[in-house]
From TrEMBL:
GO terms for molecular function: GMP synthase (glutamine-hydrolyzing) activity. It is an enzyme of class 6 (ligase). The gene is guaA. Keywords: ATP-binding, Glutamine amidotransferase, GMP biosynthesis, Ligase, Nucleotide-binding, Purine biosynthesis. It catalyses: XMP + L-glutamine + ATP + H2O = GMP + L-glutamate + AMP + diphosphate + 2 H(+). ATP binds at residues 251-257. The active site is at residues 110, 197, 199. Catalyzes the synthesis of GMP from XMP. It comes from Kineosporia succinea. This is GMP synthase [glutamine-hydrolyzing].
């Protein structure tokens, strides 16, 4: 039986190269802001970022802020974000109708769209017809909001409720299978709304919808530019750290490399980097950090072998959130020991505590850990939601409001080589969150072998840039029957999860050519004992996340 040819994956658009757009704080500006009202969205920062990309100044405010306070900021326009609640649910965040009486242009997105529809006299239904990920919509011929976008387009949805009737005075602009009113507008009042997420890159004409709203709907000029992120951050770091000593949690990944380079530029040799080998790393990773990273950057590096400590703490644990909390805690305990050693080595036994810890935390780590306003906790990233309550360090996180592509641009501008800046992400909790079930030494070894094969084959096929990352997951608690060498086997499946993304907030599964998948599958089942089945994960994010745990 012949297989259909694999569809080529569209390459993600070029990453943002203008570092000056990477906004890290609310800068002093006399411009009237576009307020992004956050209903607990996964994507509130992303909306603010896209507005800034349209050269319009933007700030985020929580939906709990009274409308008088919002209006006191003299917003030039308001964007109502998505959120996890359902509009009729008890305690769901509401919109004060006064917001619609102030003469300010409004764009509602997802939950914001639904809440707006309800507040203005439309109807929202919970039909059970849900849409997650890439969805086709059919758009009206002419409108302000969807101007310049095709009649049939693919948008990124993530909803369970849907607007069934637009409020009086509104024109319906689009529909999808699960959303009879997928977009609407009332140009007279300058009110607009979409059920989908225009702020995510996977919505092909998303930025066009946002700029249509900003420039044509709200009639805002695009004349705002940000200052330089690097200068701004270096100055902030200097002010925070002064002449104290500081350690940086360095993983060899992009984010901590860029964070370390910023801190190094700010405070020079007051910085010592600490790399933790927690026994959950991939093949060759520890060596790579020890040799290549130090050679490239000349940074002072301390390597700690903490594998026994982590594996002991993880023994018997299968629950993903518990694993993450344990790992977050153990990381900090190791950093505390390392900090004491740094002081001892500097012969400063009295008063010379290291009180600052640098981490390469990005905005997605924060928001997925439930760190936005009213944002759901999706998973506790070890460096945010997994931190222990008794944390003694003051954190230095210069990348905390940025997305990965912005961090890559900062890294390049700082002079870091492409081998570091373009590296695929690897999560801090490592292989522990890629073993579904308890983490043991043997299972880690099995997964390490399979992962090394996958990485080698994808690299050899030249797919490293096209693929954002490819988690390889061991379903340790699942077994299936195989026949190998004429004998019965009862082994474990390995899951391949190749994804394409720009910022890890949304992702699609990469259409890796079938021949290559076949080769990987054959190699894994031939070379890795205990594995007799290889499966491909074909889920986008949403609804799946990139990692399985
Ligand atoms: N093995 C490790 N040793 C020391 N610090 C670590 C380690 N793994 C992760 N960290 C810390 O946790 C932070 C978050 O990890 P994360 O994997 O998100 O970022 P990264 O490794 O720097 O970049 P990338 O996303 O490219 O892998 C890192 O920036 C770093 O500060
Ligand atoms: O340092 C990290 N600590 C964590 O606890 C963690 N969890 C997920 N990831 C990485 O974050 C991105 C988004 O992953 P998810 O779609 O699985 O949430 C992907 O790039 C993941 O690899 C982590 N990185
Ligand atoms: N992403 C969202 O804003 C979702 C809105 C609402 N919770 C729904 O599921 O329909
Ligand atoms: Mg990493």
């Amino acid at each position: 039986m012949s297989q259909p040819p694999a569809e080529p994956t569209a390459l993600p658009e070029d990453p943002v190269t203008d570092v000056t757009r990477a906004q890290t704080s609310e800068p002093a500006t006399d411009q009237r802001p576009v307020l992004v009202v956050d209903f607990g969205a996964q994507y509130a920062q992303l909306i603010a970022r896209r507005v800034r990309e349209a050269s319009v100044y933007s700030e985020i405010v929580p939906s709990s802020m009274p409308v008088e306070d919002m209006l006191a900021k003299q917003p030039a326009a308001i964007v109502l974000s998505g959120g996890p609640s359902s509009v009729y649910e008890e305690g769901a965040p509401q919109i004060d109708p006064a917001l619609f009486e102030a003469g300010v242009p409004v764009l509602g997105i997802c939950y914001g769209f639904q809440a707006m529809a309800l507040a203005l006299g439309g109807e929202v239904a919970h039909t059970g017809l849900r849409e997650y990920g890439g969805t086709k919509v059919t758009a009206a011929d002419e409108s302000t909001l969807l101007h310049g976008t095709p009649a049939d387009q693919s948008v990124w949805m993530s909803h369970g409720d849907a607007v069934h009737k637009a409020p009086p005075g509104f024109t319906v602009l689009a529909e999808s299978a699960g959303a009879p009113v997928a977009a609407f507008e009332n140009t007279e009042k300058s009110f607009y709304g979409v059920q989908w997420h225009p702020e995510v890159k996977h919505s092909t004409f998303g930025q066009k919808v946002l700029t249509n709203f900003l420039h044509n709907g709200a009639k805002l000029p695009g004349d705002w530019t940000t200052g330089n992120v690097i200068d701004e951050q270096v100055a902030r770091i200097k002010a925070q750290i002064g002449d104290a000593k500081v350690i940086c949690a360095l993983s060899g990944g992009v984010d901590s490399a860029v964070a370390a380079a910023l801190v190094q530029r700010a405070v020079g040799d007051q910085l010592t980097c600490v790399f933790v080998d927690h026994g959950l790393l991939r093949q060759g990773e520890a060596e790579q950090v020890e040799q290549e990273y130090v050679a490239t950057t000349g940074v002072k590096l301390k390597v700690v072998d903490a594998s026994t400590r982590f594996l002991t703490a993880l023994a018997g644990v299968s629950d993903p959130e518990t694993k993450r909390k344990i790992i977050g805690r153990e990381f900090i305990r190791v950093f505390e020991d390392a900090a004491r050693e740094v002081v001892e080595e500097a012969h400063e036994s009295d008063g010379g505590d290291v009180k600052f810890l640098v981490q390469g935390t990005l905005y997605p780590d924060v928001v997925e850990s439930g760190g936005g306003t009213g944002t759901a906790n999706i998973k506790s990233h070890h460096n945010v939601g997994g931190l222990p309550d008794d944390l003694q360090f003051e954190l230095v996180e210069p990348l905390r409001t940025l997305f990965k592509d912005e961090v890559r641009a900062v890294g390049s501008q700082l002079g870091l080589p492409d081998e570091i800046v373009q590296r695929q992400p690897f999560p801090g909790p490592g292989l522990a969150i890629r073993i579904v079930g308890e983490v043991t030494k043997d299972r880690l070894e099995t997964l390490r072998q399979a992962d090394a094969i996958v990485r080698a084959e994808l690299s050899a096929a030249g797919l490293d840039r096209e693929i954002w990352q490819c988690p390889v997951v061991l379903l340790a608690d699942v077994r299936s029957v195989g026949v190998q060498g004429d004998g019965r086997t009862y082994g474990h499946p390995i899951v391949l999860r190749p994804v394409s993304s720009e910022d890890a907030m949304t992702a699609d599964w990469t259409r890796v050519p079938y021949e290559l998948l076949a080769k990987i599958s054959t190699r894994i089942t031939n070379e890795v004992a205990e594995v007799n089945r290889v499966v491909l994960d074909v889920t986008s994010k949403p609804p799946g996340t990139i990692e399985w745990e």
